[in-house]
Amino acid sequence: MRLEDAPILRFYHLTIDEKDKDKFEEEGVRNMTTSIKDEPGTLFMAATHDDPDGVSNYVIECYKDEKSYKIHAGSPQFAHYATIAKEVIKERDMFELTPQLILTKEKPLKITGKNHHYVVMRKITLVDQYLEKFGDELQSEMENALVNEDGFKGVVAGNMFDIENEWRILEIFEDKAAYEAHLKTDWHQKFAANTQEMIYDSEDIKLTADTIVDQGELIYR
Known about the structure:
Layout: E1 8-16, H1 21-38, E2 42-49, E3 56-63, H2 66-73, H3 76-88, E4 89-104, E5 110-112, E6 118-126, H4 131-148, E7 152-160, E8 163-173, H5 176-183, H6 186-195, E9 199-214, E10 219-220
Antiparallel strand pairs: 1-3, 1-4, 2-3, 2-9, 4-7, 4-10, 5-9, 6-8, 6-9, 7-8
């Protein structure tokens, strides 16, 4: 699905109690798998965590447009999820992102339960003068990965709506071996070399994938 208009892209950080992890994850699976099946305008959803206990959770959602988001927000599965979330979420931060690049494989993602996928959230602060040039370099790297790497499953990237040089990049790989192989490719090496002076600060957060689903072959650039 090629997206001509910018979709809605949101990034959440949710903190829960360890005792509620299983309940929270179960509701996330139900909400996301049902939504991706029943709602064509719900394009991509990911639920992940970055700590052993599942307390610190990162959620990324992408909708084709406002109408699609309202369909999701009015769905019975979301209503049930929202009820549980209200009980278990202790802290909630939401960030609107301006989409910059979304690429996923033709075969839709359907990651649930225990799995070996390797997911990285890259938090990048750019030097202001390189905002557009960085996007071009990222697109070149990820388009090569999509075509040439079986183990590369997709990327969702955007910048903070109100802070243009603050980027969040979610990269999904089949497993750690696929990620390590990607780092050795010519296109990644070129990206790293060409963007070195563009990046003021960066942090890579390794995420455990709880649920990641999409409509398949998403293209936005």
